Amino acid sequence: MTDLAVLAAGFGVIPLAAIILYTVTTRVLAYREAAWGFLAGVLGFLGVSHAMAVVLVNHSLLGDLVAATVLSFVGLAIGAGIAWLLLDGPFIQTEPNRILWAAVAFLALHSFGDGLVLGGDFTGAFLPTLRLDAVTVTTTIAHRFAEGCLVVVPAIWAAWRPRPAFAVLFASLASIPAAYAPGWIFASFGFSPIPRALSTFLAGMEATVGLMLLVRGFIPIAAADRGTRWPVWIAIGFIAVSLVHFFVE
Ligand SMILES: [Zn+2]
Questions:
Q1: Share of the chain above pLDDT 90, in %
Q2: What's the gap in Å between 241 CA and the centre of ligand 1?
Q3: Which of 21, 81, 99, 215 has its CA 20 to 30 A from that of 133?
Q4: Ligand 1 center to residue 243 CA distance, Å?
């Protein structure tokens, strides 16, 4: 399991590197259309396209149609509820902090999902067939780094200091326990639908948190200067993170 420990730690820790954006805060704030547009594309892919693809694929593979539907529905509904509470509920007062905390929730959910995928390769009788070459390592770093930026850019925008911003980035470490979850479940229950059910439920939550954060936070901020380039940046972010996913999950 040493390999899994190394990979899980890497997966969890890479997003923390996004804190480096604090060295270019004036640029992040000045290039609003590019920074928020690009990240809106990343968020659109990860939250809406990718997470929903996981829900749909698992839905068809879970076996029990009714259970799969209930599980997916409840995940989607809870995610929408969480996103609403963070973005428009009574708990967080200022607008930039609302977006930041919703982004932290998204990063935590997404990281947990990433960890489950990673750990799922290490269960069962099969040896993991993970390719560890320059391409997969580079694309994994790019993928996880971009996810860290989803939290750091809102933190810069909310005028958070680097230290607390670094602390909330720790949400990405959710991938570490998640990477071990499939192994624990396999050890306790043998082959079971639990990991797939868990991943369906979490991906449902991730999809609606991502959707609401996208339309309520990232797109309006990217478009707020009434520029014309933000839709292009959204497409660039979306396509870039799609390319990354052709090489790694
Ligand atoms: Zn990811």
A1: 69
A2: 10
A3: 21
A4: 13
Q: Quick check: is 28 in a domain?
A: no
pLDDT digits (tens, 9 = 90+) for 197-209: 999 999 999 999 9
Give me the long-range contacts of 12-15 (CB less than 8 A, separation at least 24).
12/111, 12/115, 12/172, 12/173, 12/174, 12/175, 12/176, 13/172, 13/173, 14/140, 14/141, 14/144, 14/145, 14/148, 14/172, 15/107, 15/111, 15/144, 15/145, 15/147, 15/148, 15/151, 15/169, 15/172
Q: Does residue 111 lie within any of the structural domains?
A: yes
Name the residue among 208, 233, 187 with its Cα closest to residue 102. Answer: 208
Instruction: Name which of 224, 229, 221 is nearest 43 in CA terms.
Output: 221
Tell me, yes or no, whether 23 lies in a domain.
no
Gap between the Cα atoms of 78 and 83, Å rounded: 9
pTM here is 0.92
When divided into structural domains, the chain yields a total of: 1
The one-letter amino acid at 225: D
- How far, in Å, from the CA of 128 to the mean position of ligand 1? 19
Q: Which amino acid is at 199?
A: S
What's the CA-to-centroid distance between 23 and ligand 1, angstroms?
24
Q: Which residues of 122-154 are buried (b: 16+ CB within 10 A; e: fewer)?
A: bbeeeebeeeeeeeeeebbbbbbbbbbbbbbbb
CA 226 to centroid of ligand 1, rounded, Å: 30
pLDDT at 120: 79
Instruction: State yes or no: pLDDT of 125 exceeds 60.
Output: no
Flag whether 27 is in a domain: no
